[in-house]
Write a structure and sequence with these properties.
heterotetramer, A: 372 residues, alpha/beta, Rossmann fold, 5-stranded parallel β-sheet, two-stranded antiparallel ribbon, 13 helices, B: alpha/beta, 2 domains, 7-stranded mixed β-sheet, 14 strands, globular, binds thiamine diphosphate, binds magnesium ion
């Protein structure tokens, strides 16, 4: 059975509401309302993610970082589209492949790069690392390492939005392998039962580490269809196309905000690199041809660039400038990170408890830490 | 002072905190319409309605994770595990998401959440339903754990737990729910007990019995017997809070009596008492006249048989016997 | 919203393969092959379960037992039908409501009653109690208390059967509330993905403790339909009817044995008593009329009795004799239990490790137990 | 003797046991076609095929429970957790089904299963991926726990674990996988090491350093420094097995040196060393010339920063400092 289940087997299935033959998503109101500047911003965001990772990879390989580095390259359109639709009461949470989401919601390259370097100036002060970027001030709740473990938190964000009487939603991301975690199933049932404004998003890049979708999941037509088990709305999205992404995401987000109903979205995408940089097998469980095809024909960044050029909004030269600026910004971030101080040994004991950090009355009673 | 049941003391704590802070929500299996499997939340759904008292499906990982997520947005969920034993299906949410998210975010996020429910043996419900996980959770920095033994402690600690801005795990006890004890009237003012403060439940001079939860009652009963039948004066220290821990009170009583027996419903390998013994031998080494001894649950999964389960657990007889070994 | 979601709301939905209009399940080969004696045995088994519980309840209320007592009364047809179809390589596992399954697979009333009494003569030597009856010699693997926790074990039994090269299957039971446990979802995916000979059975009695199906689960038409999420076969069964039960169970078991494919079955049933005997609310979350209706019109024991009388196989007098015999057997079991010795304090430390129980070389190295 | 890597020693153990017993199956995420996330199962799928080496979905509760169920029918699954840290999503199966089913059935059922994977900090993967749960699982009667520090121990203990008829949880270490050490040739005969036997890795007379897992290497390095720079002769006892535990060896070394420092990568509250300290003070009370001291991981969730994580963990410098406090 060697090689069984290898490779991508993408059905173009018809999703329940939006996959109407010949539909042009650029026509949808949420895309019509985009200004030229906003379209270019989307391009810039994707480019910034791409270049941030180019530089991360370089310095990871140079030994500047510890742990894992899970690159998002090839998937940038997803986080970018999602973030572009978020309002004041919308919240985002994701798994360990979180650099794209972090930059898309507006985190700075400096704090992100410094976090990779494990420096005190990092967004998590060097405590979280690559898998754990957070920016609550931007309604962004991380960055989580346990597969599937963030999905209950995500429906909790939706619960909080609803409890607080706000019209908003939560966007919770996971991969195609994560759908088989029990917590995901429990969350879907609760989201549907409690009518939570939750959009649960499967970023389906075809593989969980070295295991193709077919080898990890049993399903009828696609993974999002599992939503039917909970009588929940679902859709499937071509992740290469910003217009399609925004149009379909918007429908789900509005369903959450206005009707307080959840949706499962499956977004088809592809990761260019290995599972993490340490994944030496990246080219074993998928063919070099497959990888090349995605790079050549399915790069969301280039596809959007072409679209903007075709629409007359962007020139090839302007695109290049944006690329250069992004590269410069990422390089500067690496310098910032390099020159930042690491956390101190004393820092190890901070951020364990809110009460001790804030030196409250409560924190002065009893022993909280048990170092000899 | 009026005497009320441990169960009602908790109920009063919830009621007062629901009143005080509109972000407090009670949540769990059967807590609302059914009034709670052990009636601890009786009447609260009727009084506070669907928004504040919420029934969940049997999905502990899902709903506890949801509570943690909501707490990040300022909701203050008080989550019931029908039995603390069911922690096993929600362990990831309990020890990673609740315990670590503040740390991993460099302090950007906090989780003001309470997890509660009964954690005890002695009701003949077998191995899977009789876990005492207070020591297990206290092992995770980021978590706080309290174990009230009396109605007053139950009310006072629960109210402090709800107001605390860190995750606090409150271990109640099905065998204490019906116990009565003095609890100040609400009219006498806001009644809270700080986390991290032990309580001398009986003064004594010959030996220290250090316990928490129902074991405190066993220790007190044993102390009476020791006094009457053996003329031994035992001091009983109720830890109340496992983390934060009142180490000072522990060391003081040992310095006073020079001997300690730890009474602990945990299993002996890494029970709470293992940590207490470790601390005592380190910080009161020169005061000890005998090795610290422990009375724990006999080291096996919980037996069902009602004829024998009480012998597997610490009980006054076993405490007396152990004391006599070292005094 | 008081009372919202109360009460049973049973859709008569059409299941995928067998709910054909006018189908008479007594015609199916697996029922045609039943001898008169076998049909009477089915009646006897149900009656024995009923009377075992009558006596258990009596002595539980008299304080002879500890812990919980979850009665199966009203659901006897299910375990009875299942057990009647089991061959040498078929295995059964269930939750805490396990008395019916235990007797149906052939355990003796004495060992079961003695277990309830916590005596050394009990099937689990007084260590398991009501929720934990086992009889591996009868391919019966218990009796499990953590909701949903037995389902992974159940697919493991299927895995074992297949691994050992046998044509058999596992029957794993749970309640309608248990379907929302993560482990159940994980197990269903694995069963489908690995093509395990597993029959996963939801005994849907409408309530999980005081919570109706509608208040605990989001679903489209019924709970079994969630199987579609894993592209798995499913069916729904009227649990009152032995012929329907056996016919549909047989299809699923044969699918498992012959094609090594899993099935989810939802069996509609009703529990007469509270969740456990301690359930003081039993009549609050459902109306007395609802309970009475099920007792009067849907009692699987009486319905089968009537059918056998109509078929001319059984007379009312013979039925009465069987009832009396069952009652006498149960009463004798209570006497046996009453007069049996309890476990000793030394017994507490047995059955923790196989190696120490068997006093092997391995068990003599190192300290296994940590009692002071 | 030939020297091979810890990783290859394990691989050899699997290969030999797959050969010896057709009921042995390796199972876990990426163990087959991918050769294991840390290449511990390299080549085994190719050699033994789909039936004996099995990839699973990311469903730890599901597949571990499945392994336990299969073990009840005589299959002998060797289950990989890609990281032991992922125990949190399978905790119920690990501490209830595997640990209690024998007990609850009065001995009718047993679960000959091995759970294995790396359990360690020090690789900058943050709080959720750096748990050391050996003490946590050893607290559950019904389970056995071993923690090999060297390639030979890894091979010998793994083979014993696979043959053992109880659930054995083997804690490996990503930072040891690449270490080389002497391991007897397969041609020299079946090589096993019994569970429950500690090993004196270095003889000494002034102080006992008691450790397990990677901490053994820190202890050995510290012992060298103590000898050279302070003329202190430290004995290093490698526990190897946490449950069963070689209490005799522990007491003997303390009786010899009269002082102990426990080196333990656990967090300090209820780390393995809490239990060891408790046992020593009870059973060697009169032999102790100073309180037992511990070097544990600094009490916080695991920090990511590669600049600082090694300081959070026990390391030779911290061991030396601690020894100097009491000698
Ligand atoms: C509970 C748990 N099990 C296993 C892992 C190890 N692990 C990390 S990512 C991963 C693969 C996840 O794949 P997928 O969900 O498809 O996301 P992708 O990496 O493709 O973005 C695995 C097995 C983990 N972190 N947590
Ligand atoms: C993980 C877990 N959560 C909660 C419980 C408590 N509990 C035991 S049975 C039960 C209701 C289960 O209902 P259902 O699955 O419908 O089965 P039924 O009792 O109707 O047979 C609950 C909540 C438990 N035993 N385990
Ligand atoms: Mg993927
Ligand atoms: Mg039910």
């Amino acid at each position: 059975m060697a090689g069984s289940g290898y490779g991508l087997d993408r059905l173009m299935i018809s999703s329940p509401e939006t996959n109407v033959e010949g539909l042009d998503f650029s026509d949808s109101p949420i895309n019509q309302s985009l200004s030229d500047a906003e379209k270019i911003e989307l391009y810039r965001t994707m480019m910034r993610i791409r270049r941030f990772e180019t530089i991360s990879l370089k310095f990871y390989n140079a030994g500047k970082m510890g742990g894992f580095l899970h690159l998002y390259t090839g998937q940038e359109s997803i986080a970018t589209s999602c973030a572009s639709l978020m309002g004041d009461h919308d919240h985002m949470i994701t798994a360990y492949r979180c650099h794209g989401h972090s930059l898309a919601v507006g985190m700075g390259m400096n704090e992100c790069m410094a976090e990779l370097y494990g420096k005190a100036t990092g967004c998590s002060q060097g405590k979280g690392g690559s898998m754990h970027f957070f920016a609550p001030d931007k309604n962004y709740w991380g960055g989580h390492g346990i597969v599937g473990g963030q999905i209950p938190l995500g429906i909790g964000l939706a619960y909080g939005v609803k409890y607080n009487g706000n019209q908003g939603c939560s966007l919770s991301f996971m991969g195609d392998g994560a759908v088989n975690q029990g917590s995901v199933h429990e969350s879907m049932n609760i989201a549907a039962l409690f009518e939570l404004p939750a959009v649960i998003i499967i970023e389906n890049n075809g593989y969980s580490m070295g295991t193709s979708q077919k080898r990890s999941s049993a399903y009828r037509d696609c993974l999002a269809q599992r939503a039917e088990a909970y009588d929940m709305a679902w859709d499937i999205i071509n992740g290469e196309d910003i217009y399609e992404l925004r149009a379909k995401l918007h429908i789900a987000m509005e369903r959450a905000r206005k009707e307080s109903l959840p949706t499962v979205l499956e977004i088809q995408t592809y990761r260019w690199y290995g599972h993490s940089v340490a994944d030496a097998n990246a080219k074993k469980y998928r063919t070099p041809e497959e990888i090349q095809k995605y790079k050549d024909e399915h790069d969301p960044l280039i596809l959007w660039e072409k679209k903007l050029i075709a629409e007359g909004i962007l020139t090839a030269e302007e695109a290049k400038v944006i690329g250069k600026e992004a590269m410069a910004e990422a390089s500067a971030a690496a310098e910032f990170a390099e020159s930042s101080p690491p956390p101190s040994i004393e820092d190890i004991s901070k951020h364990v408890y809110w009460e001790t950090d804030n030196d409250t009355e409560a924190s002065k009673v009893g022993r909280h830490f048990f170092n000899d | 002072m009026r005497e009320i049941e441990y169960r009602d003391a908790l109920n009063e704590a919830f009621d007062e905190e629901l009143e005080r802070d509109s972000s407090v929500v009670l949540m769990g299996e059967e807590v609302a319409q059914y009034n709670g499997a052990y009636k601890v939340t009786k009447g609260l759904w009727e009084k506070w309605g669907d928004k504040r008292v919420v029934d969940t499906p049997i999905s502990e990982a899902g709903f506890i994770g949801m509570g943690i997520g909501a707490s990040m947005l300022g909701v203050r969920p008080v989550m019931e595990l029908m039995f603390w034993s069911f922690h096993s299906v929600a362990f990831d949410q309990l020890v990673n998401n609740a315990a670590c998210v503040r740390y991993m975010s460099g302090g950007l996020i906090n989780c003001p959440i309470v997890m509660r429910g009964p954690a005890n043996g002695g009701t003949n419900v077998g191995a899977t339903h009789s876990h005492c996980p207070e020591g297990l959770f206290a092992a995770f920095p980021g978590l706080k754990v309290v174990v009230p033994a009396t109605p007053a402690d139950a009310k006072g600690l629960m109210k402090s737990a709800i107001r605390d801005n860190d995750p606090v795990y409150v271990m109640e006890n099905t065998l204490l729910y019906g116990n009565k004890g003095p609890v100040p009237e609400p009219s006498e003012g806001d009644f809270t007990i700080p986390l991290g403060k032990a309580d001398i439940k009986r003064e004594g001079s010959d030996i220290s019995l250090i316990a928490h939860g129902r074991s405190v009652l066993h220790a007190l009963e044993a102390a009476e017997t020791l006094q009457k039948e053996h003329n031994i004066s035992a001091e009983v220290l109720d830890l109340r809070s496992i983390r934060p821990l009142d180490q000072e009170a522990i060391i003081q009583t040992v310095q006073k009596t020079n001997r300690a027996v730890l009474v602990d419903e945990s299993k002996p390998f890494n029970g709470v008492s293992s940590q207490i013994a470790t601390l005592i031998q380190e910080h009161a080494f020169d005061y000890l006249d005998a090795p610290i001894k422990r009375v724990c649950t006999i080291d096996a999964p919980a037996i069902y048989s009602p004829h024998i389960e009480d012998e597997q657990l610490p009980n006054p007889r076993r405490v007396v016997e152990k004391v006599l070994e070292i005094v």
